[in-house]
Write a structure and sequence with these properties.
about 425 residues, D-Maltodextrin-Binding Protein, domain 2
Amino acid sequence: MKQLFRIMLAMVMIILLAACGAMKEEELKKSAANEKIVLEVLNPKVEIDSQFEQLVNAYEKENPGVEIHIRTVGGGSDDRALLKTQFVLGKGPDIFTNGGYEEAKLWKEYLEDLSDQPWIANAYEHALEPMKMNGKIYGMPMNLEGYGFIYNKDLFAKAGIKETPKTLSELMNVSKKLSAMNITPFAIGYAETPFLGVHMLNIAFAHQENPDSFIRGLTDGTQKIEGNSHFKGLLRVLDLTIRYGNKNPLTIDYNTEVTEFAKGKTAMIQQGNWIQPFLDKISPNMNVGFIPIPISDDTLKNDALPIGVPNNWVVNKKTTNEKKAEAKKFLNWMVSSEQGKKLMTEQFKFIPAFSNIKVKNPGPLAEDLMKYAKEGKTLSWYWFKYPPGVSDDFGPAMQAYIAKQMNGDQLLQQFQKSWNKYSEK
């Protein structure tokens, strides 16, 4: 009898354990079903911080199983340095940005191949070039941007200026007229090195007879920055902005500089169409336009704006397969869904790099850029083709020049030394 009882008890225990196991397995399945895919995104554009959150919220509503965390670092802050630190710590984001060309080669081990993505069919061919390596595509172009001197048309009219300057001498005369009316000609925030060593310095490279050949020549020793007329001309522009700009430029950051311009305290600022959302927030319907940055008195050569792809969205090759699949889905949604396209053009004020996205009311700065592009009056962006790291030296060297710690010849010599140092790595 006791033996039978033990057998029956054992059977009951087995049934109960099996039932508990089944229940546990069911709970795990339910838990897995309820667990969201979390994507980490590093966004370098502070100007669209809140707008990007709107886009993410719209995607999350359509995809309740996904949660996207945005970290915005830019506007003068070094997002690339942060990115390097994150990868060293093994905490790299699932989606980040890359400039392409030399920078794409530098980060290739972290770049997922996106060659099979649907958005490629609609991307402008030239916009894909920066992220092309060995016939494969490793990044989705964020948008098209351009820069130069943005000017306040109302302040120009107040000073009686009817024609925008197209030469260095004309820019000098305009600056004198504005000053005579107690209008500060330039907002300059030279505490931020990228606007000096990247954007401004690019003008001298872009004006070379053959910029790509010149860059190769700097590396193989057949070309030099020292004594180059285009670099000398660039220093004359820099001197002009310092002479006719706000005081203490080395203490002025990006936000302060743009805010001063947006409030009508200065007539010009060296920036790009990326500041349109910033202007709209502070001074809606501000009457602004673009002036090319002249480095000589050659009217035809100076009348062009640098236009290019500022950055490319990339997917972290080393994240999980599940996250990679969702990251690719999110990027494609950005440029193919009606909601994504609307937010990119109407809220971000982006000039799309895709033929399937039509622009409505892009804003005055984008309109100017598209006009220049249509007329073929454009310059290219070359800093992504420099030896990696050299731009990090250019900006501080220009700050030292502004602080009068070196003269013009010494600055150009320093540019050359930096180029030699980084091209040998």
